[in-house]
Description:
This protein has a domain of 46 residues. The N and C termini lie far apart (32 Å). It is globular, with a radius of gyration of 14 Å. 57% of the residues lie in helices and 9% in strands. It has a two-stranded antiparallel ribbon with strand order 1-2. It has 4 helices and 2 strands. The chain is mostly helical.
Amino acid sequence: xxxxxxxxxxxxxxxxxxxxxxxxxxxxxxxxxxxxxxxxxxxxxxxxxxxxxxxxxxxxxxxxxxxxxxxxxxxxxxxxxxxxxxx
Length: 87
């Protein structure tokens, strides 16, 4: 996991009881490092749909034509359809 942090030059790892989690909280790192990496090296399978939804949420966050309330509503709707919520 440390190599992953060094390679992408962002994020942190957190140990839970049974596993490690990798987390990136800086929006510019998500936009400029994480998304380009997974665009260049695509995620395969069902998780590719979640990544696509994640990218849609990033576009909404950046878009100035939506109010914060509208952004939250749209992102909540996207989130509800991700992972196990996908039909």
